[in-house]
Write a structure and sequence with these properties.
This protein has about 220 residues and is mainly alpha-helical. The chain has a single domain, classed as Gap junction channel protein cysteine-rich domain (de novo design (two linked rop proteins), Up-down Bundle), CATH 1.20.1440. It is about 65% helix and about 5% strand. It has nine helices and three strands. Strands 1-3-2 form a three-stranded antiparallel sheet, with helices on one face. A hairpin with an 8-residue loop joins strand 2 and strand 3. Helix 1 packs antiparallel against helix 7. It is a multi-pass membrane protein. A connexon is composed of a hexamer of connexins.
Length: about 220
Amino acid sequence: MVLLRMVVLILAGSPVYQDEQERFVCNTLQPGCANVCYDIFAPVSHLRFWLIQSVSVLLPSAIFGVYVLHKGAELAARRSRGLEDASEDHDAPGLTPGARRCLTVPDFSSGYVVHLCLRTLTEAAFGALHYLLFGFLVPKRFSCTHPPCTSVVDCYVSRPTEKSILMLFVWAMCALSFLLTVADLVCSVCWKTQGRPGTPFLSQTETGLGPHFPGVQLWVSLLS
């Protein structure tokens, strides 16, 4: 969802916002007035803000993915050196090789829940900041009275309808991403609290039991 949002912003947002400041026209010749009015109208460029938002939302998932890959590579190296079997034979004698191998797969439940919490908080924080900075629609006219403007100055935004449609699309994508993340978080917490304590998060191909909640399957599959 986040990657789709970034693709849409790059392909559709760049042509719309490439001339945003040049086409921001004010009915005044006062030097510096138009620049000050534009700075008040858009403290941060809409497109840059959306890209920063998308990267920030994607960051927790990227960190969790790197963590899973690191643990998977570490586990594969231990198995290849034969250290895994030696430690299992010493710690749990009498277990079958398949049962011993199940004990060694890392449990990513806590990390997965934390990464979902970070994504939810990031989406909520950027959503609130987006509303405070830009609202929901791009106005056709913006009135400014800030110095060096000597009177009320009316400024006109280029392509306001197209920008408003794009902004509503971004709002819809953010809301859908937030709801999906919250739903995944709720399901993950429910599965974690109802699952048996101490059971590792394993893929179905390794244990036949599957992970405690579905959301972690994609990440755990990197270990196989």
